[in-house]
Amino acid sequence: MKRIISTSKAPIPIGPYNQAVLTGNTLYTSGQIALHPETGELVKDTIEMETEQVMENLKAVLFEAGMTFENVVKTSIFISDMENFSKINTVYAKYFDEETAPARETVEVANLPKYVNVEISMIAII
């Protein structure tokens, strides 16, 4: 059985998908970009601010499912320019304890929705 997770504290999906799906003890989040949930505007002033908004969106989805970043076991990071890796990584690292950080991959891609610079999805368990 699956349960749809939805919160107004993260951006409304811009297509036929949900913010997250909980099945059993596993949560699968959709990729989040730096859309501000209240204004619907992209946060792209700096790559750091963009990444921060992505992580805050994910935090809101996790919270709605009764979880925190401690529950995350896997992340996927998609970036438009590998030159931004260290800046993205610095912001990302603020949300995890290094000793218990999740597995992850970081992939450079040609384009992302709305031509953002970073998109992140997560898998978490209860």
TrEMBL record:
It holds the Pfam family Ribonuc_L-PSP. SUPFAM superfamilies: YjgF-like. CDD domains: YjgF_YER057c_UK114_family. InterPro entries: RidA, RutC-like_sf, YjgF/YER057c/UK114. Belongs to the RutC family. This is RidA family protein. It comes from Winogradskyella pelagia.
